[in-house]
Amino acid sequence: MQGRPQGPASHRRQRVSGKKTMKILVPVKRVVDYNIKVRPKADGTGVETAGLKMSMNPFDEIAVEEALRLREKGAATEVVAVSIGVQQAQDTLRTAMAMGADRAILVLTEESPEPLAVAKILKAIVERETPDLVILGKQAIDDDMNATGQMLAGLLGWPQGTFASKVELADGRAEVEREVDGGTEVVSIALPAIVTADLRLNEPRYASLPNIMKAKKKPLETLQASDVGVDTTRRLTVVSVAEPPARKAGVKVGSVEELVEKLRNEAKVI
Amino acid sequence: MTVLVFVETEAGHVRQASRSAIAAASKLGEVHALVVGDAASVGASAEAAAKIPGVTKVLKAGNDALAHTLAEPLADLLVSLAGDYSHIVAAASSVGKNVLPRAAALLDVQPIPDVLDIVDADTFVRPIYAGNALATVKSADAKKVLTIRATSFDPAPAEGGSAAIEDAAAPASGDTSRFVSSETPTSDRPELESARVIVSGGRGLQNGENFKTVLEPLADKLGAAIGASRVAVDSGYVPNDYQVGQTGKIVAPELYIAVGISGAIQHLAGMKDSKVIVAINKDEDAPIFQVADYGLVGDLFDVVPKLAAAL
Fold this sequence. Notes:
heterodimer; A: 7 helices; B: alpha/beta; 18 strands; globular
């Protein structure tokens, strides 16, 4: 592990049967299922989520899958899933364990803490667990913040490889191919590091029924946000939540000629 | 109040999305621009930023790590400059999204991504749930860190101003993060984010070859950029930077032609603010028709060549 910066993860490293351990922490979030179209509440205080199907954030499934593949390749020895939220987030952690995560940690908080608070809680968990790599989804599909991974990296002073479409580990570094506006780029970051998963990093597996049963017996530890000493007071107050302006209904045209005529003379865009 | 805008440049030009961020920042107060690059070219980039009306000062910093906009040194630079500013702003581009949350964490600030509208110095409108709801949020942080959705603010003009240029101290960067390579194919077509017309293809195109033989002639006729749905990218028809949607590019051209795209909410999130939307799909129940101004039900392999020929 040449060039590895000194930090808790390096000096507390243990050895198991002569082999270095390599632990990956994967934060996962419980969100409204991606197939569901949410609507603002009538009083404008938020969105209506009561009774909706909840699932693991799709980008987090990709993060879990990547951690499992690294373990299956022998590049990692343990995968720990962590979720921050309400009690029901344990279902999301069971899903992560059914996919193959070894154990899980739930940090109980109010509904949907902000990325800053989540990053602070994750920093505390990182200091306890001393992982070599944290893989997160690049964004949660509920608040669409795309911030937690970058913020955790900042708080820890770790390098970051965000929006990853490929991750290779070698010689104490991660080589990360990233999806950027103009195409892709590759960065090399020293472990311990943060990676956030983009859509094309992999295709997550489905949990099999035997693995779902097995996951029920895997260890799940529950903590309170106060146990890790983090203040989760919100910095953003929601003033209102509203529907976006609706597009006015369009028309069907019967032919290419009619379409061209409308674009030319009605919409005047060509 | 003075606002610091991180400005992205490309070959000595300020990217259009950054000019939109400057326009947004101008609503908040006086605007200073931060420009980074390699030591040799940052001067020219700074001069381009200095010409943008509304910018009163340009700060420039150049070294190799900053040239590749690596998040670690760039966030450190923003933090070192932040003391003088009420707001730190950037476009919600892949660079802005990578860097600003990191800087925000170091400043103990909750960032506000993808700002669509500025209500006042503390209050901002942003989309949630793939744009199915718009949240107005008020920040209690002393300093605000914002990324701006470029399609919601008309870009500031590229010329007309003459701001002073000063050097900012570039932070030392270690070896923990380094740039290796990039693959950013160049094309004669306009960029997706700034194109006046976009022709976009989805699953209905069936393969990458059909993007070339069916969509490209139409795009050529219209001088259009080419976009794609997630399925088309996941299936390898076109590269990732073509993707329009919740997690891809957000576009709002004058004319968006969706070809063989069913219209999943994640795709609609990226294009429903286009001025005029045309949908061409053989499935008359496809959700794309619900947002289309003009829908044409038909086989794209028949319709699209006819359309290209008629223009």
